[in-house]
Amino acid sequence: MEMQDTPDTTAASSPGVESIRVEPDLDFIQRLSEQCGDSFTKCIQCGTCSAICTLSPDSAPFPRKEMAWANWGLKERLLNDPDVWLCYQCNDCSTRCPRDARPGDLLGAIRQESITQYATPRFLARWAGQPQGIPLMLGIPMALLTIALLLRDPVADALGISTGITDQIIYSYSAFFPHWFLNSFFLILSFLVLLASVTGAVRFWGALKTGAPASVNTSPVQSIPASIWKVLKKILKHDDFTSCTAAYSRFWSHSGVFFGFLALSLVSIWVVTARYNPLITGDFVYPLAFLDPWKILANIGGLALIGGLFVMILERINNSGKAGAGSYFDWALITTLVAVVATGFITEILHYIRLEPHRHLAYFVHLVFVTALILYLPYSKLAHMIYRTIALIYAEHTGRSAGVRSKLGPVTEDTERKEE
Questions:
Q1: Spatial separation of the C-alpha atoms in residues 161 and 302, rounded to whole Å
Q2: Do 42 and 31 fall into the same domain?
Q3: What's the structural domain count of the chain?
Q4: Residues 365, 92: contact at Cβ < 8 Å?
Q5: Cα–Cα distance measured from residue 130 to residue 160, given in angstroms and rounded to the nearest whole number
Q6: What is the DSSP letter of 56?
Q7: pLDDT digits (tens, 9 = 90+) for 352-400
Q8: Interior CA angle at 293 toward 292 and 298, to 5°?
Q9: What confidence tens digit (pLDDT) does each residue in 104-126 have?
Q10: For residue 411, is it within any domain?
Q11: 252 CB-side CA count, 13 A
Q12: What pTM did the predictor assign?
């Protein structure tokens, strides 16, 4: 069966029109329906979603074409489409859709499928995307940490490692969780996760380059380093979130989560690299004192993260029509982040009130959730950090992001009247 790339084309012989053979992937359509419902099948291709989106380029705008491709079951076309990742699911399109087809929810489901497609190994992404995988998702980190703890003393004896406690450490975790042990465990884990992340990123970049329609010009318009720099500035400023009108509060919730997570990551890197960090003069004392600047940054980051998550949860519960109720994929990440921060603060409190042996148990539970967060980074919704960044870089590199109407600011009734 021959059909057009987009439903608004006139004839296969027209200049610039691409004719493709439609071979629907019915399993793919079914998975999308399971993840976001079948509301996308209501789409009548009116184009309201593309017209209202302030992030959609003027040339081949999204999400109208993605709605058609999803209904046609064009899996490869969708999984190779950078526009899927240019959407931040602000749901302006969903709230304005006359048929309640919810394009934002569909693009979210396609992003989940993309993570599974490019993940290595792929079965971990499948587990991360379904509730049945919860026992394994928690059981594997717990098993890894338990095995590492059982090997702690034999490894220390074999390598001649001794745990030193100075008089500056008043109340230490060293007896159970020495610094060298935590560093070694998380460095090895992070290396494996980085390897998996890079593998998925390389596969995704290759798919973006080879999967573009023949009618789309993908010639570079600026260098990759320049594109990376521009994207990093955009991410730090959260420019695209400010253009949302249906759920503007997502800017604040996402900012709290993003910058809180960034602060905690910086503190973790500082602690892990302390032995080799040229910026540290004198003895490095761990655990950090309560008034240590890095401890203060960690606590501020934790509060920002939990505050952003709280707003995010309220949005999904009280304003699901505009913000979207969220899929299991969303809630799995939110729950994990809440567990990491909550157990971290509980551990800190139990540590300072010197409650034995509860502080050690709380710390172990905290480390299990931290391990899960890191281990499943390339497979959970946290992988958005990888794939969205790559798609944004590709869009800048090829000029795809040029002409985006977000430069005009958020779409309002006044803006719409001026455009008319």
A1: 32
A2: yes
A3: 2
A4: no
A5: 44
A6: S
A7: 888 888 888 999 999 999 999 999 999 999 999 999 999 999 999 988 7
A8: 95
A9: 899 999 999 999 999 999 999 99
A10: no
A11: 9
A12: 0.84
